[in-house]
Design brief:
alpha/beta; 4-stranded mixed beta sheet; 15 helices; 11 strands
Length: 314
């Protein structure tokens, strides 16, 4: 368990912010794991034309540790623009970007080929790749997403004003919770606690079904989390309806099983216990949405026709 430790001053200065960069990173991960949807097919064609973006997307979507270059705290509060967030990305040296990606590769659950980094001007290349994802897959939908994020912030701010930070943090993600008088758990994985400075902590919602990560930079720390309430209330895509039907955890597993996987692989990727994953898989299997086939000593789960139709419809 890793904690963010906040002093009274840091706590009083903590605030909410928006991050188009975090939204773009999350969208990249979601699209790389999606299969069959029009947006995912468009993204696959984009990756086929851009080996650098393909390497970046493969790394972001298969690691438990995002590269430092794409996990930067926003500097503009609720008015943060992608352009302002890409400036420090462009300013990073090739050595800094490579080092951050190598750390991410060591935390990947698949082997990573980092030859896409064998070039110069990585800051500009990385910023251009992120801009390309934003322009094609985020910007057209940004007004709706921004409305959902603002609604999320208003909801959390109301809880904060009425009941304080512990209540405002309740239900932000599966892994985040208030601990003791001054700590926030943001991951169940072991690691050194972070001491939040007097500038406070930023809470950054994104319109994704899952995914929590910590951003660190000159602007301090920011905790990115899925904007569950606002995303559900906004007129989002059919994925939200699917989550309402079978629950977020099972919806995420069902979506992931567009690619076959074992219970152990799923537990590692989602940071869940084998028991929890097993219960979800049993319910999905009993509903006829997945099937488990034995491959040697392993049981590999995959979608049935019914499960694939449900994912494609949503």
């Amino acid at each position: 368990m890793t904690l963010l430790k906040l002093s009274p001053l840091a706590l009083s200065r903590s605030r909410f912010a928006l991050s188009p960069l975090a939204e773009t990173v999350g969208t990249t991960i979601r699209l790389r794991h999606s299969r069959g949807r029009q947006s995912a097919r468009s993204f696959d064609r984009q990756l086929a034309r851009d080996p650098f973006l393909r390497g970046l997307a493969n790394l972001l979507s298969h690691t438990k540790w995002l590269p430092d270059a794409v996990a930067l705290p926003p500097a503009g509060g609720m008015g943060t623009s992608l352009a302002s967030e890409l400036e420090p990305v462009r300013a990073m040296t090739d050595a800094e970007i490579r080092a951050g990606c190598e750390v991410s590769a060591r935390h990947s659950w698949i082997d990573q080929d980092l030859r896409w980094l064998d070039t110069s001007g990585l800051g500009d290349r990385l910023a251009a790749a992120l801009q390309a994802v934003w322009s094609r897959h985020v910007a057209p939908d940004w007004p709706r997403r921004r409305t959902a994020l603002e609604r999320e912030v208003m909801y959390r701010a109301g809880l904060l004003a009425a009941f304080g930070w512990p209540a405002a943090l309740e239900g932000m993600s599966r892994r985040s919770r208030w601990v003791g008088a001054d700590g926030i758990q943001f991951t169940q994985r072991p690691g050194a606690d972070r001491q939040i400075g007097d500038e406070g902590l930023q809470f950054v919602p994104v319109t994704l079904a899952s995914g929590t990560w910590l951003c660190e930079g000159k602007g301090g720390y920011a905790l990115v989390y899925p904007a569950g309430r606002a995303a559900v209330e906004a007129p989002a895509d059919g994925r939200v309806a699917l989550e309402r039907l079978i629950g977020r955890g099972r919806a995420e597993l069902l979506d992931r099983l567009s690619r076959p996987g074992t219970a152990s692989e799923l537990a590692a990727e989602f940071g869940l216990s084998l028991g929890t994953v097993g219960r979800h898989l049993r319910i999905l299997r009993d509903a006829g949405l997945i099937v488990g086939l034995r491959d040697g000593h392993k049981v590999v789960y995959r979608l049935t026709v019914r499960g694939a139709d449900l994912i494609a419809y949503n």
